[in-house]
Amino acid sequence: MVVLLSWLKDFVDINVSIDVLCDKLVKAGFEVDSVTDLSKSYQNIVVGKITQIEKHNGICYNKEVFV
Question: What is residue 34's predicted lDDT score, i.e. its pLDDT?
Answer without folding.
Answer: 92
